[in-house]
Design the sequence.
């Protein structure tokens, strides 16, 4: 069983992501409402993949990625899933340490294929 952490402040968006991930076999999903919540969950559990938004309260997605790659020295694959689709934003996300970058609205098969590829 592979463990995926979804970091998204919108309950509706978390629900959509979980629905799409049903198409990926043998995965367990944990939800975090922002970057601080994600760090707490990462300190308590082991995850095989992180899917994170950028725009969140308290600790945004880019700050979260920088903490994971820096302080936590983790190589967990990270997918950014956000509304920010500008080239400069994509570059910021990848430079921070994300492995992949997707823009909303979510296209189910693209997300599930990307998740499967990282697992």
Sequence:
């Amino acid at each position: 069983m592979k463990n995926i952490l979804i970091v998204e402040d919108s309950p509706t968006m978390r629900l959509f992501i979980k629905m799409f991930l049903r198409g990926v076999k043998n995965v367990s999903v944990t939800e975090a409402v922002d970057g601080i919540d994600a760090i707490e969950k990462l300190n308590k559990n082991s995850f095989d993949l992180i899917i994170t938004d950028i725009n969140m309260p308290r600790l945004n997605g880019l700050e979260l990625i920088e903490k994971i790659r820096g302080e936590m020295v983790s190589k967990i694959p990270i997918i950014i899933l956000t509304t920010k689709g500008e080239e400069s934003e994509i570059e910021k996300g990848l430079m921070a340490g994300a492995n992949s970058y997707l823009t909303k609205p979510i296209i189910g098969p693209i997300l599930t294929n990307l998740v499967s590829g990282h697992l």
